[in-house]
Amino acid sequence: MSTLNTPGERKIVTFSLGEQMFGIDMKALIEIREWEEPTPLPSVPAFIKGVTNLRGTVVPVVGLAERLGWTPSVLHARSCILVVTIAGKQAGFLVDEVADIIVINDDDVQPAPDVEIGEQNVIAGLIQVVPRAQEGAQAEAAGMVLLLDLDALSLTRHLDLAA
């Protein structure tokens, strides 16, 4: 894995929700967990799936697709939970599949696109990435990754309710 030598470079973890690729800053990521059914909670928004225990800490699990106003993710063998820190609190995001960890340069990030998300400000920007070629596979075309602004997801009040 490469080290970050250039100012403005950072690592992001990329993942899919439906057909769209997203990325979050690696600094916010605590761990990637296999999907396990969380304990449901009453009187919380539908996108909060429940809570799970992470080494003694109660962590709310959020259906990220639902939080973005999309159709809920369909659970399958590669579904997983990205455990992140948002405003000093931990949360788990249900995603369809983790794709890669890549190094990006902040200068390559484009302004947020106009996508079908109820809240435009949750997208911090857009970056074009070239997937790594798998051994024996043909190289894929470059794709666009939407960078999420975790702080803009405004989950803090909901996380307090869930935890």
Describe the structure.
With 163 residues, the chain is mostly beta strands. Helices cover 7% and strands 44% of the residues. It is built from 2 helices and 10 strands, in the order E-E-E-E-E-H-E-E-E-E-E-H. It has helices spanning 64-67, 156-162, and strands at residues 9-17, 20-25, 29-34, 48-54, 57-63, 80-86, 89-95, 97-105, 123-129, 143-148. The protein has a 5-stranded mixed beta sheet with strand order 8-1-2-10-9, with no helix packed on it. The longest helix is centred in the last third of the chain and has 7 residues, at 156-162. The radius of gyration is 16 Å and the shape is globular. The protein starts with 8 loop residues before the first strand and ends with a helix. The mean pLDDT is 84.
Helix content: under 10%
Order of helices and strands: EEEEEHEEEEEH
Quaternary class: single chain
% residues in beta strands:
35-45%
- Quantity of strands, as a count: 10
What number is the mean pLDDT?
84
> What class would the helix/strand composition place it in?
mainly beta
Radius of gyration: 16 Å
What is the helix tally?
A: 2
> How far do the termini sit from each other?
35 Å
Poorly predicted regions are none
Strand order of the largest sheet: 8-1-2-10-9
Shape label:
globular
Largest sheet: 5 strands, mixed
